[in-house]
Design brief:
The chain is α/β, with parallel strands linked by helices. The protein has 14 helices and 16 strands.
C-alpha cells in the first residue's frame, strides 16, 4: 500500500458477529488500536489528523484499527455486546491478521478492554499503551474521578441523545476543532455512523458498569499510560491506572484538550509510543515537514443567519467573491491559501507583518462585499501535511480568532513581538484563556 492510499476494510468473525477492521503499514511490530465510543474505521479518515496519526504509527508498526461489536461498520447487536464479547473481538482480529503477539493501544473505553485482554492473554501482548482511559467509568467509593452513574445516564439521555447526530459531543471529545464548521459537520456525521440515539443510551448504561480496578495489579506486560492534562476524562483517571499497574510509566500532555487521540502534537505522542514499543524513536517522522509560519484564520460573522436570509444561490455567489478575494490578497502578500472553509479561510505566511497586512486587507475587501469577518493570527511551528497543515500553532490561531469581534483582527503576543518597527499598530485586547491551550494569552487588535 502506498503511503497516500487509504486502507481497505475487511471483516472477520467474532462469535456470531462480523467485525470490521483495517490494516495500515507492514512494520515488524503489530499495534492494535482498541477504540473508544466514537468509532467508524472508514469515516474517521474524513477528520483532520486521523490518517496522519495512523501513518506515523505505521512508520514502525503494522497498525490495525477496528470497530467493536455493535459499533461503526461491525455487526449491530440486540442490546449491547458483553464486555467478554468485546475482548473476544481483539482475539478475533489477531487471528484474522495472523498475529502471534501485538502491542495494544487502548483509548478511552478501549483501555479497560485492553487491560483485561492483557491480563488474560499476556502471551499475546507485548506492550500495553493506555490513552485517555480509566479504571472505572462511574464514581464509587475510593474512585471519585468520575461522575456518578445516575449523572452520566441523565446527561446522555437528556442532552446527548436529544442532539445526537448534530455534533453534540464535539466539545467534549474534539474541542480543538469545534469551531471549524467543516469539521463540525463531519463530526456530526461520525456520531450518526457510530451509534443511533437508542444505542447511545444503551452504551451509557453499559459503560457505567465498567470497573477493572481489581484487574490492574495482575498486569504483567510493560505498560505506558498517556493522558492529556485538560482531557474531559480527568487526568486523575490516568494517574490512578499508572499507580495500580505494576511498573507502569506515566506521561502527560498539555498540547490540547481533545479526548480523541489523533489531534495535538502527533510527533511527540507517536514518538513516545514508538520508543516504548520498539526501544527507539525516529529523529524525524517521514512524509512530514515542520516550519515556522504565521497562521491566519478568518471567519465570516453570522454566516448561517446571512445564508438563510439571502438564499442558497445569492449566498453561493457572494462566497465565490469572498474566495476569489482571499486567493488574490493572500497571494499578493506572499502567503499560501491552505483552504477555504465554507465561511472562512486558513492561510499561512512566511512573515508575520505580511500576514497581518493580508488580514487587514481581506477584512476591508469583505466589508465592501457586505461580509463582516473576524480574524486571528499566531506564529509558531506547523506541520506540512500533503496540502494541509497541523500543529499547535494552527489550534492557537483558531482560538485567537474565536476571541475576535466583527471586523476585528486579533494577534497573539508572539506576533506583536516579531513585527516591532513595522509601522503596524496594536491595541490591548486583554488576557484570555484559550480553550484547550495552557496558560493565559495576551491578545492585541491590529490596525495599519
Amino acid at each position: 500500500m502506498s503511503t497516500l492510499e487509504l486502507p481497505e476494510t475487511h471483516y472477520t468473525r467474532s462469535g456470531e458477529l462480523n467485525i470490521a477492521y483495517q490494516v495500515m503499514g507492514d512494520g515488524p511490530v503489530d499495534l492494535i488500536f482498541v477504540p473508544g465510543m466514537i468509532t467508524h474505521v472508514e469515516f474517521l479518515h474524513e477528520l483532520p489528523g486521523y490518517t496522519d496519526f495512523l501513518r506515523r504509527l505505521a512508520g514502525f508498526a503494522r497498525v490495525i484499527t477496528f470497530d467493536k461489536s455493535g459499533q461503526g461498520l461491525s455487526d449491530r447487536y440486540l442490546g449491547m455486546p458483553s464486555f467478554e464479547q468485546r475482548i473476544d473481538d481483539v482475539r478475533a482480529i489477531m487471528e484474522a491478521i495472523g498475529s502471534r503477539r501485538a502491542a495494544l493501544l487502548g483509548c478511552s473505553e478501549g483501555g479497560p478492554i485492553s487491560i483485561v485482554f492483557a491480563a488474560t492473554f499476556p502471551e499475546l501482548v507485548s506492550h500495553l499503551v493506555l490513552f485517555g482511559s480509566f479504571a472505572r467509568f462511574s464514581s464509587a467509593a475510593g474512585y471519585s474521578f468520575r461522575p456518578s452513574g445516575n449523572e452520566i445516564v441523565s446527561r446522555v439521555d437528556d442532552v446527548w441523545a436529544g442532539g445526537w447526530g448534530t455534533g453534540v459531543t464535539i466539545r467534549h471529545f474534539l474541542p480543538s476543532h469545534a469551531d471549524d464548521p467543516n469539521v463540525a459537520r463531519q463530526y456530526a456525521k461520525l456520531e450518526r455512523l457510530a451509534f443511533s440515539p437508542g444505542a447511545l443510551k444503551m452504551a451509557a448504561r453499559y459503560n457505567i458498569e465498567i470497573d477493572v480496578r481489581t484487574i490492574l495489579p495482575a498486569i504483567r506486560v510493560p505498560t505506558l499510560v498517556l493522558h492529556r492534562e485538560a482531557d474531559v476524562m480527568s487526568i486523575e483517571n490516568g494517574k490512578f491506572l499508572a499507580s495500580q499497574i505494576p511498573g507502569a510509566q506515566f506521561l502527560s500532555y498539555a498540547d490540547c484538550a481533545d479526548h480523541l487521540i489523533f489531534p495535538g502534537d502527533q510527533s511527540r505522542l507517536c514518538g513516545d509510543i514508538e520508543e516504548f514499543v520498539t526501544g527507539h524513536r525516529e529523529a524525524t517522522a517521514p512524509d512530514f515537514d515542520r516550519v515556522l509560519a504565521t497562521v491566519l484564520f478568518v471567519d465570516i460573522v453570522d454566516s448561517t443567519r446571512r445564508a438563510v436570509e439571502m438564499g442558497d444561490q445569492a449566498w453561493r455567489r457572494l462566497l465565490d467573491e469572498h474566495d476569489q478575494a482571499a486567493q488574490r490578497i493572500v497571494t499578493q502578500h506572499r502567503g499560501v491559501l491552505v483552504k477555504t472553509t465554507g465561511d472562512g479561510i486558513l492561510a499561512t505566511f512566511d512573515g508575520p507583518g505580511r500576514a497581518i497586512r493580508s488580514a487587514l486587507a481581506f477584512e476591508a475587501a469583505t466589508r465592501r462585499l457586505g461580509l463582516p469577518v473576524r480574524a486571528g493570527l499566531h506564529t509558531g511551528e506547523i506541520e506540512l501535511r500533503n496540502g494541509d497543515i497541523g500543529g499547535i500553532a494552527v489550534h492557537a490561531a483558531a482560538r485567537v480568532m474565536a476571541q475576535a469581534g466583527p471586523s476585528e483582527v486579533l494577534v497573539s503576543r508572539v506576533v506583536t513581538d516579531l513585527v516591532a518597527g513595522s509601522g503596524l499598530k496594536f491595541a490591548d485586547h486583554g488576557t484570555h484563556e484559550l480553550k484547550g491551550l495552557p496558560g493565559r494569552w495576551d491578545l492585541f487588535a491590529a490596525s495599519a
